[in-house]
Amino acid sequence: MVAFATVATIIASQAIISGAYSLTQQAIQLGFLPRMRVLHTASHEKGQIYMLMVNWLLAAGTLGAVVTFGSSDALGGAYGTAVSMLMAVTTVLAALVALQWGYNTLAVAAVNGSLLVVEFIFVAANATKLLAGGWFPLLLACVVAFLMLTWRTGYQMLEYQRSRMRQREDEFVDWVLENPPVRLPGAAAIFTAGSSGIPLALTHHLRHNRVLHERVLLVSTVSSDVPRVDPDQRAKLVPVGAGITRVTLHFGFMEHPNVMEGLKLACCDPGLRGIDPERITFYSRRVMVIPSGKVPGMAVWRERIFAAMHLNANLPAAYFGVPTAQVVEMGLEVEI
Which of 224, 217, 218, 271 minimizes the C-alpha distance to 250? Predict the structure, then answer.
């Protein structure tokens, strides 16, 4: 029994670790967590990843639980609460997915409703253990949810401020045509989170340096609701004018957004023919968030938490797999 219990513990721990990596990666792509470094540990399997930050957080949480509770008996309440509520939440989410996929509403209600009745009985039974350890998984869930919602709301506020500062595409093109800058040979790519307007990094670069590459790509990534995007649908090109093209790369929520691979597909298009992704200069922004309370949505103390998360987030170029030798960083300050 000890041998079986040990093997079961190893299997369960590996499942939790792999699941934490996968869920964190999907949360990042959906915009609920800041970018973190993702290492792919297998070339033949896209889902095999390792995340250093998540690994250490899991280690700290595990050691903290062991030290706090002291024995497996004391952890019984926490384990029962976590498992029973996980079953209930999974059933609710499965019902929502089934409805979105077009299954019959009555059938979904009958199947998932009957499961929920049984699961709510388990939840109610474990509610008596709330003060005897059941509070621990609830506290962890509240902390993670708070950080995710803080990042989501803060990023929306930041994007709102940046959208107000962005120059319109037609105004920028007229500015370039009326006051022609020195055009450098080759191509440059600028990361942008917006689907319209000119990135602040490009505007600042042109205003202060008075030079512009002959070909400029405004690169943005979009995470789709599907697990994987067909390569034929990966890149969408929209000409802006004055040698500028907007490139939108679509990735599934199970895919790591590799910009270099996406640009190789995009450069097969006649509009970008002749551009070598290995010779593109990438302009990356480093935004310093200044909490000020100017934008409604969060208290200033939550804005400070978001600013700290944003400061420690992985930079776009590193997250999107761009070689460091091709990256030029530009610093910006934005008040929220």
Answer: 224
